[in-house]
Amino acid sequence: MALRVERRTVLVCAALAVTVAALGVLTLGTGSIRLTPAQVLSALFDPDADPRDRLVVVTWRLPRLLFAVLCGAALAISGALFQSLTRNPLGSPDVIGFASGSYAGASVVMLVLGTANYLAVASGSLIGGALTALLVYLLAYRKGLAPFRLIIVGIAVGAFLSSLTSMLLLSVNPQQAMLAATWGAGSLSGLGFEQLRPTAAVFVVLLICSAAVARPLVHLELGDDAAVALGVRAQRARLAATLTGVALTALVTAAVGPISFIALAAPQIAQRLTRGSTTVRIGPAALTGAAVLTGADFIAQRVDLPVGVVTVCVGGAYLAWLLARRYAGRRG
Question: What is the pLDDT of residue 332?
Answer without folding.
Answer: 58
